[in-house]
């Protein structure tokens, strides 16, 4: 934003700064209203504004008000020699830098560029911090109404000892939820032990799960405890439980009924106190109907069932997670500021993510490594598939659903910034608030990090 009452100078700056989206103001009132509407990252401010064009009182008051509203905004004071003392005072009050009049446009461009860079860094940093605070459960990034509800369920059931089944496609975060359940429970100071039934050959699985005594089989040189026993007093996570062979299903069922285990080659019944959480991407009911999974075990394991929606059904999460992973890998790879191009974000939002969050994580890691400039382009993402079109239904419903999705997407993309989301949607801020009200989308401004707990009431 350029705050300047000299129309000639305004024009000159408009031409010289045509690489930026510039908005103008010529006095305090219009400056403040532009700040409300556009929330500019960088402002150049002439101190001599009407009605005190020869003094600095209006300029200094404008500076104060801008910084009260938007403390991160970088305000560059543009002033003549006679105003030097006031310009220094302005820097003392929080202005970012000062630039002398007459303007040296190359110098000013440089100062503006640095100001944008610093602003971007601060925003990234803030986002990183708020993302962590934002998580409803440790490590889980989401603003989707269904997922937020699920996180609340996890918190509620964490203190119980009920056995839990987590269903969902591959890469939807089943293990992450299991870990979150453990860290939210009173078992958190004890071990979380995980085993993937699909990754271990059948012949080894029994001894992995239950342990073995010395001499139980050739090569059993010493007594070894199994994973279930290892998790004593903690949480035991049985991943891909649908792949558990039938013989071991019987043994697991016995453990669930008696809460004791018998090591392979042993005779002793050893009591073990564990919370069992299991997960699968397979349809256990179907497997049970085909006789490949014991129905009694299925019911024992599913005292509480959580179903994780695939990423393509989580509204707004694709852009949110993309930003999260971009920030993570930029840090890990030691890259400078990097943002998504508009086209890259469009692609991220329309892609169907068959591999869910794991695929997204890998894709963004690749993009951070591949990106050549300061922007991640669709090419860097390396995604092939075309977006699927939603089914059409009743016209009013289609319009409603599309409107609601567009608003959630715009808010997610602009990280909850209402003014920017309104701009993106091409509506005024009050109109956006109306639409959000109509769809029950909340914006909790008192807690910016969670402004965005956007939920659909219906
Ligand atoms: N909501 C989320 N926020 C941040 N990271 C996530 C989220 N969900 C999943 N991840 C990350 O995505 C990756 C895959 O998650 P996870 O291993 O928990 O999925 P899964 O459903 O258990 O997969 P599989 O069925 O293949 O075992 C992990 O690196 C995890 O940290």
UniProtKB/TrEMBL annotation:
One of its GO biological process terms is: phosphorelay signal transduction system
Q: Does the keyword Phosphoprotein apply?
A: yes
Q: Any idea where the Sigma-54 factor interaction domain is?
A: 140-369
What keywords are annotated for this sequence in UniProt? ATP-binding, Nucleotide-binding, Phosphoprotein, Transcription, Transcription regulation
Keyword ATP-binding present in the record's keywords: the answer is yes
Give start and end of each Response regulatory domain.
Answer: 1-116
Q: Which PANTHER family match?
A: ALGINATE BIOSYNTHESIS TRANSCRIPTIONAL REGULATORY PROTEIN ALGB, TRANSCRIPTIONAL REGULATORY PROTEIN
| GO molecular function list | ATP binding; sequence-specific DNA binding
Q: What is this protein called?
A: PEP-CTERM-box response regulator transcription factor
- Sites of the modification 4-aspartylphosphate? 46
Cited NCBIfam families: PEP_resp_reg
Give one Pfam family: AAA_lid_14
């Amino acid at each position: 934003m350029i705050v300047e009452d000299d129309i000639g100078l305004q024009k000159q700056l408009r031409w010289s700064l045509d690489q930026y989206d510039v908005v103008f103001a010529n006095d305090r009132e219009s400056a403040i209203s532009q700040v409300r509407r556009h929330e500019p990252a960088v402002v150049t401010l002439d101190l001599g504004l009407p009605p005190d064009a020869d003094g600095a009182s209006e300029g200094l008051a404008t500076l104060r008000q801008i910084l009260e509203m938007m403390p991160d905004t970088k305000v560059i004071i543009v002033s003549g020699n006679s105003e030097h003392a006031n310009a220094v005072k302005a820097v003392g009050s929080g202005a970012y830098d000062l630039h002398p009049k007459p303007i040296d446009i190359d110098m000013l461009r440089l100062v503006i560029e640095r100001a944008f860079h610093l602003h971007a860094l601060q925003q990234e940093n803030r986002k990183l911090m708020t993302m962590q605070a934002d998580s409803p459960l440790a490590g889980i990034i989401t603003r989707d109404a269904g997922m937020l509800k699920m996180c609340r369920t996890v918190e509620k059931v964490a203190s119980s000892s009920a056995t839990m089944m987590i269903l969902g496609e591959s890469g939807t975060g089943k293990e992450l939820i299991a870990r979150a359940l453990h860290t939210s429970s009173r078992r958190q100071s004890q071990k979380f032990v995980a085993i993937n039934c699909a990754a271990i050959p059948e012949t080894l699985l029994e001894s992995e799960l239950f342990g073995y005594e010395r001499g139980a089989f050739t090569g059993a040189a010493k007594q070894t405890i199994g994973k279930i026993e290892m998790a004593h007093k903690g949480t035991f996570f049985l991943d891909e439980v649908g792949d558990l062979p039938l013989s071991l299903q019987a043994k697991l069922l016995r453990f669930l009924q008696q809460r004791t285990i018998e090591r392979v080659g042993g005779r002793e019944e050893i009591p073990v106190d564990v919370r069992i959480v299991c997960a699968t991407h397979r349809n256990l009911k179907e497997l049970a109907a085909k006789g490949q999974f014991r129905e009694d075990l299925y019911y024992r394991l599913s005292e509480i069932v959580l179903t994780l929606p695939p990423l393509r059904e989580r509204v707004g999460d694709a852009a949110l997670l993309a930003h999260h992973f971009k920030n993570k890998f930029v840090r890990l790879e030691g890259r400078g500021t990097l943002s998504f191009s508009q086209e890259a974000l469009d692609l991220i939002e329309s892609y169907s993510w068959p591999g869910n969050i794991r695929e997204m994580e890998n894709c963004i890691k690749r993009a951070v490594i591949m990106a050549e400039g300061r922007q991640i382009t669709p090419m860097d993402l390396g995604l092939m598939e075309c977006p699927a079109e939603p089914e059409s239904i009743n016209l009013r419903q289609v319009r409603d659903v599309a409107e609601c999705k567009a608003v959630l997407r715009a808010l997610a993309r602009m990280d909850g910034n209402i003014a920017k989301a309104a701009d993106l949607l091409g509506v005024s801020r009050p109109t956006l608030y109306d639409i959000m009200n109509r769809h029950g989308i909340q914006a909790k401004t008192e807690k910016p990090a969670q402004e965005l707990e956007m939920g659909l009431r219906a």
